[in-house]
């Protein structure tokens, strides 16, 4: 039943040769480039911000990193345990984004972006998590629209992201203080010159 629903949703979302060129171009940008908000936002939160909020921001960045590592690990395990071909491998629908023919479930892009969004919903503010969730949904739509993923690949990414955040919370409660001190010391060592010049926060 799930596989039937997967095919139905895919055919409903997937672009065709008659789809507007501008919409396909927009989807390619969303599918390939919008994910860059993850490292850019993480770097910004770590390096800058009000002095009285920097520590909390850095805690968030470390927890997000833990969550993404846990999510991608679980994603890799699931991908090898339950291999699933991409739509274009099975000659289903239309493909508008060149991609290797590796396993599709769950989506790595979906996993990373949904992990990021769930993390901000849980540990930052509702509005920031909601904005990131909308971006995650846009990425999910674009990759199905372009024919490189099934809808269930994206749902899998969301569920894996939730599991990753739960794992990160458990790890943070046990090792967070030690981990933060270690990462902070490494940061101060590597960025000493920039810190002294006031270009980034201590």
Automatic annotation (TrEMBL):
Gene3D superfamilies, A to Z: Phosphatidic acid phosphatase type 2/haloperoxidase
InterPro entries: PAP2/HPO, PAP2/HPO_sf, UPP_Pase
GO molecular function, one term: undecaprenyl-diphosphatase activity
Keywords, sorted A to Z: Hydrolase, Membrane, Transmembrane, Transmembrane helix
EC id: 3.6.1.27
Domain Phosphatidic acid phosphatase type 2/haloperoxidase: residue ranges: 61-169
Gene from which this protein is expressed: ybjG
PANTHER family on file: AT30094P, SPHINGOSINE-1-PHOSPHATE PHOSPHOHYDROLASE
Annotated catalysed reactions: di-trans,octa-cis-undecaprenyl diphosphate + H2O = di-trans,octa-cis-undecaprenyl phosphate + phosphate + H(+)
Coiled-coil regions listed: none
The protein's enzyme class: hydrolase
Transmembrane segments: 22-48, 60-78, 130-148, 154-172
Name of the protein in its database record: undecaprenyl-diphosphate phosphatase
Highest taxon listed in the record's lineage: Bacteria
């Amino acid at each position: 039943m799930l596989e039937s629903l997967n095919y139905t949703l895919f055919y409903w979302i997937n672009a065709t040769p008659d789809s507007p060129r501008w919409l396909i171009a927009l989807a390619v940008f969303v599918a390939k480039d919008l994910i860059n908000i993850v490292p850019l936002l993480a770097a910004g939160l770590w390096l800058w911000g009000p002095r009285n909020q920097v520590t909390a921001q850095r805690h968030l960045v470390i927890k997000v990193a833990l969550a993404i590592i846990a999510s991608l690990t679980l994603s890799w395990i699931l991908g090898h345990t339950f291999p699933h071909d991409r739509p274009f491998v099975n000659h289903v629908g239309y493909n508008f984004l060149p991609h290797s023919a590796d396993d599709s479930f769950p989506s790595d892009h979906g996993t990373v972006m949904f992990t990021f969004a769930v993390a901000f919903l849980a540990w930052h503010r509702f509005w920031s998590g909601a904005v990131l969730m909308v971006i995650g949904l846009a990425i999910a739509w674009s990759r199905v629209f372009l024919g490189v993923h099934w809808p269930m690949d994206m749902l899998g990414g969301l569920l894996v992201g939730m599991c990753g955040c739960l794992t990160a919370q458990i790890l943070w409660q046990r090792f967070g203080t030690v981990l933060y001190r270690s990462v902070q010391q490494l940061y101060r060592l590597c960025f000493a010159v920039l810190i002294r010049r006031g270009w980034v926060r201590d």
